[in-house]
Amino acid sequence: MHKLNWKRALNAFAMDSMPETANKSIAHKLLLASLAALTLSALMLALHPESLKMQRDNWWTISVNLIDGQGYSDCTQAYFPFCGPLNQTTASREPAPVLLFAIIARLSNKSLLAAFAAETLLFISVIWGVYLLTKQWANSQSAIIAAGIWTVYIPALRLTHEVAGDLLATVGITFGMYFVLRARKNQRMSNWLISGLWLGLGVMSRSAVLVIPLVIFVGLILEGRKKNRGFLSYVFPALTILFLAMSMELPWMVRNNIALGRPILGSSLTGYNIYRHNYMIETDDYFRYVGAKEGSQAVKTLLSHRPDLSGKENEAQMDLIYREEGLKIIHSNPSRYISLSLFRFLPLWLDWGINAAYGKPNDIVDYIVMVLQVILLILAIKAAARSLWISWPLWLSVIAISAAYLLIDSQLRYLVPVMPLVISLSANGLVRFLAERNKREVFFM
Protein backbone atom coordinates (compact mmCIF):
# COMPACT_ATOMS: atom_id res chain seq x y z
CA MET A 1 0.00 0.00 0.00
CA HIS A 2 2.88 2.34 0.71
CA LYS A 3 4.05 2.05 -2.87
CA LEU A 4 0.58 2.72 -4.23
CA ASN A 5 0.43 5.88 -2.10
CA TRP A 6 3.77 6.96 -3.56
CA LYS A 7 2.33 6.55 -7.04
CA ARG A 8 -0.68 8.71 -6.13
CA ALA A 9 1.60 11.33 -4.63
CA LEU A 10 3.62 11.42 -7.83
CA ASN A 11 0.46 11.84 -9.88
CA ALA A 12 -0.71 14.64 -7.58
CA PHE A 13 2.58 16.48 -7.99
CA ALA A 14 2.72 16.11 -11.75
CA MET A 15 -0.91 16.69 -12.71
CA ASP A 16 -4.02 18.45 -11.42
CA SER A 17 -7.24 16.51 -11.01
CA MET A 18 -9.34 19.43 -12.26
CA PRO A 19 -8.78 20.29 -15.94
CA GLU A 20 -9.70 23.95 -15.37
CA THR A 21 -6.81 24.48 -12.97
CA ALA A 22 -4.24 22.22 -14.57
CA ASN A 23 -2.41 24.83 -16.63
CA LYS A 24 -2.27 27.30 -13.74
CA SER A 25 -0.99 24.66 -11.34
CA ILE A 26 1.70 23.50 -13.75
CA ALA A 27 2.81 27.10 -14.31
CA HIS A 28 3.09 27.50 -10.52
CA LYS A 29 5.24 24.38 -10.32
CA LEU A 30 7.49 25.58 -13.14
CA LEU A 31 7.83 28.99 -11.46
CA LEU A 32 8.73 27.24 -8.21
CA ALA A 33 11.33 25.17 -10.07
CA SER A 34 12.72 28.37 -11.61
CA LEU A 35 13.09 29.98 -8.19
CA ALA A 36 14.76 26.81 -6.89
CA ALA A 37 17.20 26.89 -9.82
CA LEU A 38 17.98 30.55 -9.14
CA THR A 39 18.67 29.71 -5.49
CA LEU A 40 20.87 26.72 -6.36
CA SER A 41 22.86 28.77 -8.88
CA ALA A 42 23.48 31.49 -6.28
CA LEU A 43 24.51 28.84 -3.76
CA MET A 44 26.99 27.31 -6.19
CA LEU A 45 28.49 30.74 -6.87
CA ALA A 46 28.82 31.31 -3.11
CA LEU A 47 30.64 27.98 -2.83
CA HIS A 48 32.95 28.85 -5.75
CA PRO A 49 33.60 32.62 -5.58
CA GLU A 50 36.89 32.15 -7.44
CA SER A 51 34.92 31.90 -10.69
CA LEU A 52 34.31 35.66 -10.45
CA LYS A 53 38.06 36.21 -10.81
CA MET A 54 39.09 33.50 -13.24
CA GLN A 55 37.51 31.55 -16.09
CA ARG A 56 39.07 28.30 -17.30
CA ASP A 57 38.26 28.97 -20.97
CA ASN A 58 38.63 32.12 -23.06
CA TRP A 59 35.02 32.81 -24.11
CA TRP A 60 34.83 35.89 -21.86
CA THR A 61 38.22 37.22 -22.96
CA ILE A 62 37.22 37.07 -26.64
CA SER A 63 33.93 38.82 -25.83
CA VAL A 64 35.72 41.62 -23.96
CA ASN A 65 38.32 41.98 -26.72
CA LEU A 66 35.50 42.33 -29.22
CA ILE A 67 33.90 45.30 -27.45
CA ASP A 68 37.34 46.83 -26.78
CA GLY A 69 37.98 47.11 -30.51
CA GLN A 70 40.54 44.30 -30.67
CA GLY A 71 38.38 42.15 -32.90
CA TYR A 72 37.55 38.47 -32.47
CA SER A 73 40.87 37.69 -30.83
CA ASP A 74 42.61 35.72 -28.10
CA CYS A 75 44.85 33.08 -29.60
CA THR A 76 45.71 30.76 -26.68
CA GLN A 77 49.32 29.59 -26.66
CA ALA A 78 48.44 26.39 -24.81
CA TYR A 79 46.61 25.28 -27.97
CA PHE A 80 48.44 27.21 -30.67
CA PRO A 81 52.12 27.62 -29.76
CA PHE A 82 52.89 30.33 -32.32
CA CYS A 83 50.43 32.87 -30.93
CA GLY A 84 51.92 36.31 -30.47
CA PRO A 85 51.07 40.04 -30.54
CA LEU A 86 50.62 39.89 -34.33
CA ASN A 87 48.94 36.47 -34.32
CA GLN A 88 45.92 36.80 -32.04
CA THR A 89 43.02 36.23 -34.43
CA THR A 90 41.00 33.27 -33.22
CA ALA A 91 38.26 30.86 -34.27
CA SER A 92 38.63 28.66 -31.20
CA ARG A 93 35.21 29.55 -29.77
CA GLU A 94 31.92 29.49 -31.64
CA PRO A 95 30.39 32.92 -32.35
CA ALA A 96 26.86 32.87 -30.87
CA PRO A 97 27.91 32.75 -27.19
CA VAL A 98 30.76 35.20 -27.79
CA LEU A 99 28.39 37.73 -29.35
CA LEU A 100 25.85 37.24 -26.55
CA PHE A 101 28.48 37.80 -23.85
CA ALA A 102 29.96 40.74 -25.75
CA ILE A 103 26.55 42.44 -25.56
CA ILE A 104 26.32 41.63 -21.84
CA ALA A 105 29.86 42.90 -21.26
CA ARG A 106 29.01 46.15 -23.05
CA LEU A 107 25.78 46.69 -21.09
CA SER A 108 27.22 45.69 -17.69
CA ASN A 109 30.64 47.35 -17.83
CA LYS A 110 32.29 43.91 -18.25
CA SER A 111 30.63 42.37 -15.21
CA LEU A 112 31.18 38.64 -14.89
CA LEU A 113 28.29 38.57 -12.43
CA ALA A 114 26.01 39.80 -15.22
CA ALA A 115 27.34 37.04 -17.48
CA PHE A 116 26.58 34.45 -14.77
CA ALA A 117 23.08 35.88 -14.43
CA ALA A 118 22.60 35.37 -18.17
CA GLU A 119 23.84 31.77 -17.89
CA THR A 120 21.39 31.20 -15.05
CA LEU A 121 18.52 32.56 -17.14
CA LEU A 122 19.52 30.18 -19.94
CA PHE A 123 19.48 27.32 -17.45
CA ILE A 124 16.04 28.36 -16.17
CA SER A 125 14.64 28.64 -19.70
CA VAL A 126 15.53 24.97 -20.23
CA ILE A 127 13.26 24.06 -17.29
CA TRP A 128 10.33 25.37 -19.31
CA GLY A 129 11.74 23.99 -22.55
CA VAL A 130 12.17 20.45 -21.28
CA TYR A 131 8.62 20.56 -19.91
CA LEU A 132 7.21 21.60 -23.29
CA LEU A 133 9.40 19.11 -25.11
CA THR A 134 8.39 16.16 -22.94
CA LYS A 135 4.71 17.03 -22.93
CA GLN A 136 4.81 17.17 -26.72
CA TRP A 137 5.74 13.49 -27.12
CA ALA A 138 4.85 11.94 -23.73
CA ASN A 139 2.47 13.40 -21.10
CA SER A 140 2.16 16.11 -18.45
CA GLN A 141 3.29 13.77 -15.69
CA SER A 142 6.55 12.93 -17.46
CA ALA A 143 6.98 16.57 -18.44
CA ILE A 144 6.81 18.01 -14.92
CA ILE A 145 9.14 15.30 -13.63
CA ALA A 146 11.62 16.12 -16.43
CA ALA A 147 11.49 19.80 -15.46
CA GLY A 148 12.16 18.84 -11.83
CA ILE A 149 15.14 16.67 -12.73
CA TRP A 150 16.71 19.42 -14.83
CA THR A 151 16.22 21.92 -11.98
CA VAL A 152 18.65 19.95 -9.80
CA TYR A 153 20.90 18.59 -12.54
CA ILE A 154 24.33 19.31 -11.07
CA PRO A 155 26.56 19.20 -14.22
CA ALA A 156 24.42 21.93 -15.82
CA LEU A 157 24.11 23.97 -12.61
CA ARG A 158 27.90 24.08 -12.45
CA LEU A 159 27.91 25.84 -15.82
CA THR A 160 25.81 28.76 -14.54
CA HIS A 161 28.95 30.40 -13.16
CA GLU A 162 31.11 29.63 -16.17
CA VAL A 163 31.12 31.73 -19.34
CA ALA A 164 30.88 29.15 -22.14
CA GLY A 165 28.71 28.04 -25.02
CA ASP A 166 27.21 24.92 -23.44
CA LEU A 167 24.00 26.36 -21.96
CA LEU A 168 23.20 28.44 -25.04
CA ALA A 169 23.64 25.28 -27.11
CA THR A 170 21.34 23.50 -24.65
CA VAL A 171 18.62 26.10 -25.18
CA GLY A 172 18.97 25.79 -28.96
CA ILE A 173 18.69 22.01 -28.90
CA THR A 174 15.83 21.88 -26.38
CA PHE A 175 13.56 24.36 -28.14
CA GLY A 176 14.67 23.16 -31.57
CA MET A 177 13.64 19.62 -30.67
CA TYR A 178 10.35 20.85 -29.22
CA PHE A 179 9.47 22.43 -32.57
CA VAL A 180 10.64 19.33 -34.46
CA LEU A 181 8.22 17.21 -32.43
CA ARG A 182 5.47 19.79 -32.81
CA ALA A 183 6.00 19.99 -36.58
CA ARG A 184 5.82 16.21 -36.88
CA LYS A 185 2.31 16.41 -35.43
CA ASN A 186 0.84 19.38 -37.26
CA GLN A 187 3.15 19.47 -40.35
CA ARG A 188 3.17 23.28 -40.30
CA MET A 189 6.01 24.85 -42.23
CA SER A 190 6.37 27.61 -39.61
CA ASN A 191 7.31 24.99 -37.00
CA TRP A 192 9.88 23.39 -39.32
CA LEU A 193 11.40 26.82 -39.94
CA ILE A 194 11.54 27.69 -36.24
CA SER A 195 13.09 24.31 -35.39
CA GLY A 196 15.82 24.88 -37.98
CA LEU A 197 16.63 28.31 -36.52
CA TRP A 198 16.81 26.99 -32.95
CA LEU A 199 19.04 24.10 -34.00
CA GLY A 200 21.15 26.57 -35.96
CA LEU A 201 21.65 28.53 -32.73
CA GLY A 202 22.82 25.28 -31.13
CA VAL A 203 25.31 24.71 -33.96
CA MET A 204 26.63 28.27 -33.62
CA SER A 205 27.14 27.67 -29.89
CA ARG A 206 28.73 24.20 -29.99
CA SER A 207 29.76 23.00 -33.44
CA ALA A 208 29.32 19.30 -32.58
CA VAL A 209 25.57 20.02 -32.53
CA LEU A 210 25.74 19.97 -36.34
CA VAL A 211 25.23 16.19 -36.22
CA ILE A 212 21.70 16.72 -34.85
CA PRO A 213 20.23 18.45 -37.96
CA LEU A 214 21.94 15.74 -40.01
CA VAL A 215 20.29 12.87 -38.13
CA ILE A 216 16.94 14.70 -38.06
CA PHE A 217 17.21 15.00 -41.84
CA VAL A 218 17.86 11.26 -42.22
CA GLY A 219 15.19 10.36 -39.65
CA LEU A 220 12.50 12.44 -41.35
CA ILE A 221 13.28 10.82 -44.70
CA LEU A 222 13.02 7.31 -43.22
CA GLU A 223 9.86 8.19 -41.29
CA GLY A 224 8.22 9.64 -44.39
CA ARG A 225 9.01 6.55 -46.42
CA LYS A 226 7.77 4.28 -43.62
CA LYS A 227 4.43 6.11 -43.49
CA ASN A 228 4.16 6.23 -47.31
CA ARG A 229 3.81 9.99 -47.37
CA GLY A 230 4.21 12.02 -50.53
CA PHE A 231 7.85 12.62 -51.45
CA LEU A 232 7.79 16.41 -51.00
CA SER A 233 5.81 16.16 -47.74
CA TYR A 234 8.83 14.74 -45.93
CA VAL A 235 11.80 15.78 -48.08
CA PHE A 236 11.00 19.50 -47.99
CA PRO A 237 10.78 19.74 -44.16
CA ALA A 238 13.95 17.65 -43.82
CA LEU A 239 15.83 19.91 -46.24
CA THR A 240 14.44 23.02 -44.52
CA ILE A 241 15.87 22.07 -41.13
CA LEU A 242 19.23 21.01 -42.56
CA PHE A 243 19.55 24.09 -44.78
CA LEU A 244 18.67 26.57 -42.04
CA ALA A 245 20.95 24.99 -39.44
CA MET A 246 23.90 24.79 -41.82
CA SER A 247 23.34 28.15 -43.52
CA MET A 248 23.70 29.89 -40.16
CA GLU A 249 27.32 28.70 -40.21
CA LEU A 250 28.05 30.46 -43.51
CA PRO A 251 28.85 33.96 -42.12
CA TRP A 252 31.20 32.35 -39.59
CA MET A 253 32.95 30.33 -42.30
CA VAL A 254 33.29 33.42 -44.53
CA ARG A 255 34.75 35.36 -41.62
CA ASN A 256 37.25 32.60 -40.90
CA ASN A 257 38.26 32.42 -44.54
CA ILE A 258 38.94 36.17 -44.59
CA ALA A 259 40.64 36.34 -41.18
CA LEU A 260 42.55 33.05 -41.13
CA GLY A 261 42.75 31.99 -44.77
CA ARG A 262 40.49 28.96 -44.43
CA PRO A 263 36.69 28.57 -44.08
CA ILE A 264 36.79 26.73 -40.75
CA LEU A 265 33.53 24.98 -39.90
CA GLY A 266 32.89 25.21 -36.16
CA SER A 267 36.04 25.63 -34.10
CA SER A 268 39.75 25.75 -34.90
CA LEU A 269 40.31 23.49 -31.87
CA THR A 270 39.04 20.38 -33.67
CA GLY A 271 42.46 19.43 -35.03
CA TYR A 272 44.12 20.11 -31.67
CA ASN A 273 41.65 17.80 -29.91
CA ILE A 274 42.10 15.07 -32.52
CA TYR A 275 45.84 15.09 -31.86
CA ARG A 276 45.84 15.65 -28.09
CA HIS A 277 43.28 12.99 -27.26
CA ASN A 278 44.59 10.33 -29.62
CA TYR A 279 48.37 10.76 -29.71
CA MET A 280 48.86 8.26 -26.85
CA ILE A 281 47.48 5.26 -28.75
CA GLU A 282 51.05 4.75 -29.94
CA THR A 283 51.86 3.74 -26.35
CA ASP A 284 50.49 0.91 -24.18
CA ASP A 285 48.97 3.34 -21.65
CA TYR A 286 46.19 4.87 -23.70
CA PHE A 287 42.93 4.17 -21.83
CA ARG A 288 42.78 7.59 -20.16
CA TYR A 289 41.85 11.21 -20.59
CA VAL A 290 44.71 13.54 -21.54
CA GLY A 291 44.93 16.56 -19.25
CA ALA A 292 46.19 20.04 -20.15
CA LYS A 293 49.79 19.56 -18.99
CA GLU A 294 50.19 16.28 -20.82
CA GLY A 295 48.56 17.83 -23.89
CA SER A 296 51.02 20.72 -23.79
CA GLN A 297 53.97 18.31 -23.65
CA ALA A 298 52.50 16.30 -26.54
CA VAL A 299 52.34 19.48 -28.65
CA LYS A 300 55.97 20.31 -27.84
CA THR A 301 57.00 16.83 -28.92
CA LEU A 302 55.07 17.19 -32.16
CA LEU A 303 56.73 20.53 -32.93
CA SER A 304 60.18 19.08 -32.34
CA HIS A 305 59.49 16.63 -35.18
CA ARG A 306 58.26 19.33 -37.56
CA PRO A 307 61.26 21.46 -38.59
CA ASP A 308 59.28 22.52 -41.67
CA LEU A 309 57.14 24.89 -39.60
CA SER A 310 57.99 28.59 -39.85
CA GLY A 311 56.83 29.56 -36.36
CA LYS A 312 54.29 32.01 -37.78
CA GLU A 313 51.42 29.58 -38.36
CA ASN A 314 47.98 30.86 -37.38
CA GLU A 315 45.14 28.83 -35.87
CA ALA A 316 43.81 27.60 -39.21
CA GLN A 317 47.23 26.41 -40.32
CA MET A 318 47.95 24.70 -36.99
CA ASP A 319 44.50 23.09 -37.12
CA LEU A 320 45.51 21.36 -40.38
CA ILE A 321 48.85 20.25 -38.91
CA TYR A 322 47.18 18.79 -35.82
CA ARG A 323 44.63 16.99 -38.01
CA GLU A 324 47.37 15.61 -40.24
CA GLU A 325 49.45 14.30 -37.34
CA GLY A 326 46.47 13.01 -35.38
CA LEU A 327 44.88 11.19 -38.31
CA LYS A 328 48.25 9.69 -39.21
CA ILE A 329 48.44 8.14 -35.73
CA ILE A 330 44.84 6.93 -35.92
CA HIS A 331 45.35 5.31 -39.33
CA SER A 332 48.45 3.54 -38.02
CA ASN A 333 46.60 2.18 -34.95
CA PRO A 334 42.97 1.52 -35.99
CA SER A 335 42.17 -1.18 -33.43
CA ARG A 336 43.54 0.89 -30.53
CA TYR A 337 41.64 3.93 -31.77
CA ILE A 338 38.38 1.98 -31.83
CA SER A 339 39.06 0.65 -28.32
CA LEU A 340 39.86 4.15 -27.04
CA SER A 341 36.72 5.57 -28.66
CA LEU A 342 34.60 2.97 -26.85
CA PHE A 343 36.44 3.71 -23.59
CA ARG A 344 35.53 7.39 -23.95
CA PHE A 345 31.96 6.46 -23.04
CA LEU A 346 33.08 6.57 -19.38
CA PRO A 347 34.37 10.16 -19.35
CA LEU A 348 31.55 11.31 -21.63
CA TRP A 349 28.70 9.97 -19.51
CA LEU A 350 30.29 9.74 -16.06
CA ASP A 351 33.23 12.20 -16.13
CA TRP A 352 35.34 9.14 -15.29
CA GLY A 353 39.04 10.05 -15.09
CA ILE A 354 38.61 13.75 -15.84
CA ASN A 355 39.57 15.02 -12.39
CA ALA A 356 42.50 12.61 -12.24
CA ALA A 357 43.81 13.99 -15.55
CA TYR A 358 43.92 17.45 -13.96
CA GLY A 359 45.43 16.25 -10.68
CA LYS A 360 42.22 16.57 -8.63
CA PRO A 361 40.49 13.89 -6.54
CA ASN A 362 36.81 13.06 -6.95
CA ASP A 363 34.53 14.22 -4.14
CA ILE A 364 31.20 12.85 -2.96
CA VAL A 365 29.28 15.07 -5.41
CA ASP A 366 31.23 13.61 -8.33
CA TYR A 367 30.24 10.09 -7.30
CA ILE A 368 26.61 11.12 -6.81
CA VAL A 369 26.62 12.55 -10.35
CA MET A 370 28.02 9.27 -11.71
CA VAL A 371 25.27 7.24 -10.05
CA LEU A 372 22.57 9.61 -11.25
CA GLN A 373 23.94 9.49 -14.80
CA VAL A 374 23.67 5.70 -14.78
CA ILE A 375 20.08 5.86 -13.49
CA LEU A 376 19.10 8.48 -16.07
CA LEU A 377 20.64 6.43 -18.86
CA ILE A 378 18.87 3.21 -17.83
CA LEU A 379 15.50 4.97 -17.58
CA ALA A 380 16.08 6.74 -20.91
CA ILE A 381 16.83 3.44 -22.65
CA LYS A 382 13.65 1.96 -21.17
CA ALA A 383 11.53 4.82 -22.51
CA ALA A 384 13.25 4.84 -25.91
CA ALA A 385 12.71 1.09 -26.31
CA ARG A 386 8.97 1.54 -25.68
CA SER A 387 8.55 4.56 -27.98
CA LEU A 388 11.03 4.03 -30.82
CA TRP A 389 9.09 5.75 -33.62
CA ILE A 390 7.58 8.41 -31.37
CA SER A 391 10.73 9.58 -29.59
CA TRP A 392 13.35 8.86 -32.27
CA PRO A 393 14.40 12.54 -32.69
CA LEU A 394 15.47 12.53 -29.04
CA TRP A 395 17.34 9.25 -28.71
CA LEU A 396 18.85 9.42 -32.20
CA SER A 397 20.21 12.91 -31.49
CA VAL A 398 21.73 11.73 -28.20
CA ILE A 399 23.38 8.77 -29.94
CA ALA A 400 24.69 10.99 -32.75
CA ILE A 401 26.28 13.63 -30.54
CA SER A 402 27.67 10.94 -28.22
CA ALA A 403 29.29 9.23 -31.22
CA ALA A 404 30.78 12.55 -32.40
CA TYR A 405 32.49 13.10 -29.05
CA LEU A 406 33.53 9.46 -28.60
CA LEU A 407 35.56 9.78 -31.79
CA ILE A 408 37.59 12.77 -30.57
CA ASP A 409 37.30 14.01 -27.00
CA SER A 410 34.84 13.24 -24.22
CA GLN A 411 33.83 14.68 -20.88
CA LEU A 412 30.43 15.11 -19.25
CA ARG A 413 30.13 18.85 -19.80
CA TYR A 414 30.09 18.21 -23.58
CA LEU A 415 26.98 16.07 -23.11
CA VAL A 416 25.05 18.76 -21.20
CA PRO A 417 23.46 20.30 -24.35
CA VAL A 418 21.59 17.03 -25.07
CA MET A 419 20.88 16.09 -21.47
CA PRO A 420 17.38 17.67 -21.62
CA LEU A 421 16.62 15.06 -24.30
CA VAL A 422 18.01 12.30 -22.06
CA ILE A 423 16.10 13.65 -19.05
CA SER A 424 12.89 13.83 -21.10
CA LEU A 425 13.26 10.14 -21.93
CA SER A 426 14.33 9.31 -18.36
CA ALA A 427 11.27 10.98 -16.84
CA ASN A 428 8.99 8.98 -19.10
CA GLY A 429 10.99 5.85 -18.28
CA LEU A 430 10.40 6.53 -14.57
CA VAL A 431 6.66 6.98 -15.11
CA ARG A 432 6.51 3.71 -17.07
CA PHE A 433 8.54 1.90 -14.40
CA LEU A 434 6.24 3.07 -11.58
CA ALA A 435 3.12 2.25 -13.59
CA GLU A 436 4.33 -1.28 -14.32
CA ARG A 437 5.29 -1.77 -10.69
CA ASN A 438 1.85 -0.69 -9.49
CA LYS A 439 0.15 -3.01 -11.97
CA ARG A 440 2.13 -5.92 -10.56
CA GLU A 441 1.21 -4.91 -7.01
CA VAL A 442 -2.50 -4.67 -7.86
CA PHE A 443 -2.33 -8.06 -9.58
CA PHE A 444 -0.87 -9.75 -6.49
CA MET A 445 -3.12 -8.06 -3.92
Helix content: over 70%
Radius of gyration: 23 Å
- The total count of helices amounts to 22
Unreliable runs, pLDDT <50, ≥5 residues?
Answer: 12-18
Cα end-to-end separation: 9 Å
Give the structural class. Answer: mainly alpha
Q: What can be said about the biggest beta sheet?
A: none
Characterize the structure shown.
The chain is mostly helical. Among the domains are: 90 residues; 76 residues, no CATH class. Helix 3 crosses helix 4, helix 5 packs parallel to helix 8 and helix 19 packs across helix 20. The longest helix has 29 residues. The chain is globular. The termini are close together. About 2% of the residues have low confidence.
What are the SSEs and their pairings?
Elements: H1 2-14, H2 19-47, H3 59-67, H4 95-107, H5 112-137, H6 140-151, H7 154-157, H8 166-186, H9 189-205, H10 211-226, H11 231-247, H12 250-260, H13 270-276, H14 292-304, H15 315-332, H16 334-343, H17 345-350, H18 354-357, H19 364-386, H20 388-406, H21 412-415, H22 419-444
Helix pairs in contact: 1-6, 2-5, 2-6, 3-4, 5-6, 5-8, 5-22, 6-22, 8-9, 9-11, 10-11, 10-20, 13-15, 19-20, 19-22, 20-22
Keywords, please?
445 residues, 22 helices, mainly alpha
Summed up, what is this model?
By secondary structure, the protein is mainly alpha-helical.
